[in-house]
Specification:
The complex is a heterodimer of chains A (247) and B (362).
Chain A: E1 5-16, E2 19-30, E3 34-38, H1 45-51, E4 60-65, E5 68-69, H2 74-83, E6 84-87, H3 99-109, H4 115-128, H5 144-157, E7 162-166, H6 174-188, E8 193-197, H7 201-207, E9 210-215, E10 218-223, H8 225-230, H9 235-244
Parallel strand pairs in A: 3-8, 3-9, 6-7, 7-8
Antiparallel strand pairs in A: 1-2, 1-4, 4-5, 9-10
Helix pairs in contact in A: 3-4, 3-5, 4-5, 5-6
Chain B: H1 18-26, H2 31-57, H3 76-88, H4 96-116, H5 120-139, H6 155-181, H7 186-201, H8 204-218, H9 227-252, H10 256-264, H11 269-299, H12 311-319, H13 328-358
Helix pairs in contact in B: 3-6, 3-12, 4-5, 6-7, 6-9, 6-11, 6-12, 7-9, 8-9, 9-11, 10-11, 11-13, 12-13
């Protein structure tokens, strides 16, 4: 594995019972790369992303994340999860904790950062996503866009090298999508590796280094955003783009 | 095209508020409602005066022996005379002040716990300190207090001890059992399931009796195991199973995403459970947990079968006293009242807790 690849997926196959969910996935992601994965539902795009922090397991193939080969080994899983952070479609903030406590939980108990330092870092990130004034509120008092920004801040507090976004704006009202995308675009300007499952093609066009199209468990096409949107090669991608960009 | 002026809010018209409106809505809304209201109120108007006549207006309160009873109603002299036994069992008169201190300390402890202790460590300390002090005071044998063996404990004192120890210990144990039932490891999972289903399938009285007989076998020959301790162990084992099922219901209500978010943050199994999942699951299970506690409180009367004298068996005992034959009714009414007050207090506390926790819900 070359030093440049922070994630390497080799011939990965996954089955849910008899159903072949991921077929021979081969993928190499460079450090600092912004990758957007898109495709119809059931294409496996969320599944392969969730394999990268072992939320999903796979039966065949190899997955190496930041030098660690992912297996059943609990230590390796923990190692990977401390370097990879995930933002979920339904935010998944902890409803019984205040916003601030949501953010400092992992730094304190996983990374053993002392409480004062964890709070300072948390407030910094809350500032960055423009939500510092809500630090003492509870998730159910926030709007969807605010919750997702908190979720992003929570992911950042762990100081991850890789960030996974699983359809981060799909559950949001349209007027809140841009506030979240703005935050994500700012992140894209730093050196974080970002893997984003999304339908927001505007975002892909603006910041992605590479766009990947998946369908029926397979990677069909991948290219730079320019080529991807203006010069699609496969028929399935052409059809998908026509459907998704028609409104 | 139309443009609309902003309107300000007005208070609701008076016919929509007030007691008359409440009665119309809740008691007389439909013909079926009207019939039910008439039936229920007729029943109440018949039975309440009868009961009050017996319990209050024709009852005897003054005197010291059965013969002093003058009225045709309840003979509360019996309850008055036997009150010490109802509350303390066979606890010697001169040492009863120790039990009273423990009762008083309970309220002091609650105040300290709620308003004075701030950190988790402080609260935990108080939580452990009270039972230790209570044990020293009630049992004695230390610090110059005369030792009172457990077979002298009885009545409400015994009921409260069994119920509170049972509830406090079986909740954490039951939670661990529930986690065991969710476990991926087949041995732990199957053992948990077997244990829970066994306990749920056998009548409590049977288990109390069996457990009381079998438990001493686990201890070395010749070691006499305290009867109360045996009862406590069996009750804890039984209640843990019920608690486990309630907690399991709570665990199942937590969306998978919460587990995943905790996992993806790198939290280990116990961290995930203690910081993320259990706080939410226990909140959901709370009404069930209080229900189980209330049932446990009432089930303490079953210890009669192994020769312990809780408040209910004190009624049997004292009503068989040759000086007070035939007083069972008064005894049962009194004990019913005591049970009802305590159970109602637990219910109300549950409602308060539920309200408090609801503010955080998603």
């Amino acid at each position: 594995m070359s030093d440049e690849n922070i994630i390497e997926v080799n011939n990965l196959n996954k089955w849910y019972g008899d159903f072949h969910v991921l077929k021979d996935i081969n993928l190499k992601i460079k450090k600092g790369e912004i990758v957007v994965i898109c495709g119809p539902s059931g294409s496996g795009k969320s599944t392969i992303t969730r394999c990268m922090n072992y939320l999903e397991q796979f039966q065949e193939g190899e997955l190496i994340v930041n030098g660690t080969t992912l297996t059943d080994d609990v230590k390796k899983i923990k190692q990977v999860r401390s370097e990879v952070a995930m933002v979920f479609q339904h935010f998944e903030l902890f409803p019984h904790l205040s916003i601030l406590n949501n953010l400092i939980l992992a730094p304190m108990h996983v990374h053993h950062i002392p409480k004062k330092e964890a709070i300072a870092t948390a407030m910094e990130y809350l500032e960055r996503v423009n939500i510092a004034d809500q630090a003492d509120k509870y998730p159910n008092q926030l709007s969807g866009g605010q919750k997702q920004r908190v979720a992003i801040a929570r992911a950042l507090c762990a100081n991850p090298k890789i960030m996974l976004f699983d359809e981060p704006t799909s559950a949001l009202d349209p007027e809140m999508i841009s506030e979240v995308l703005d935050v994500m675009m700012e992140l894209a300007n730093e050196d974080k590796t970002m893997i984003c499952v999304t339908h927001e093609m505007g975002f892909a066009k603006k910041v992605a280094d590479r766009v990947i199209f998946m369908d029926a468990g397979q990677i069909i096409e991948e290219n730079t955003p320019d080529e991807f949107f203006n010069n699609p090669q496969s028929d399935r991608l052409k059809l998908f783009l026509k459907q998704i960009l028609s409104h | 095209m139309a443009v609309y002026e902003l309107r300000t809010a007005r208070p609701a018209p008076s016919s929509l508020r007030g007691p008359i409106h409440w009665m119309k809505e809740n008691l007389f809304a439909t013909p079926a409602d009207i019939i039910q209201t008439i039936v229920i109120f007729s029943f109440l108007f018949w039975i309440v005066p009868l009961f009050l006549d017996w319990a209050l207006f024709n009852a005897s309160f003054v005197g010291t022996t059965k013969a002093d009873a003058t009225g045709t109603g309840a003979n509360w002299i019996y309850v008055k005379e036997k009150m010490d036994m109802f509350i303390y069992g066979f606890y010697p008169q001169e040492e009863m002040y120790r039990v009273n201190i423990v009762f008083g300390l309970f309220f002091v402890t609650v105040i300290f716990f709620k308003y004075i202790a701030r950190t988790f460590t402080q609260k935990a300390f108080i939580f452990i300190l009270y039972p230790v002090i209570s044990f020293i005071l009630i049992k004695g044998g230390y610090f110059g207090f005369v030792e009172i063996p457990t077979d002298k404990w009885g009545g409400l004192l015994l009921t409260l001890i069994i119920a509170s120890v049972g509830i406090v210990v079986s909740i954490p144990l039951g939670t661990v059992l529930a986690l065991g039932r969710q476990s991926d490891l087949p041995i732990i999972k199957n053992l948990s399931v077997f244990y829970i289903e066994f306990i749920r399938g056998v009548p409590i009285i049977t288990m109390l009796f069996m457990g009381s007989v079998l438990l001493p076998l686990f201890f070395a020959d010749g070691v006499e195991v305290d009867k109360l301790l045996r009862a406590l162990i069996v009750i804890i084992m039984i209640e843990s199973a019920f608690i486990a099922e309630a907690v399991r219901g709570g665990l199942q209500s937590i969306p998978k995403g919460q587990y995943e978010a905790a996992d993806s943050l790198g939290l280990g199994y116990w961290q995930k459970m203690i910081f993320v999942i259990l706080p939410q699951a226990l909140k959901v299970a709370l009404p069930n947990l209080v229900g189980i506690s209330i049932e446990l409180f009432k089930d303490t009367s079953l210890v009669m079968i192994i020769g312990l004298f809780d408040i209910l068996s004190m009624v049997h005992l004292t009503a068989n006293d040759s000086n007070w034959l035939g007083m069972e009714t008064e005894g049962y009414v009194f004990v019913t009242f005591v049970y009802w007050i305590i159970c109602y207090a637990m219910s109300k506390y549950s409602m308060i807790l539920e309200d408090r926790f609801n503010t955080n819900n998603r």
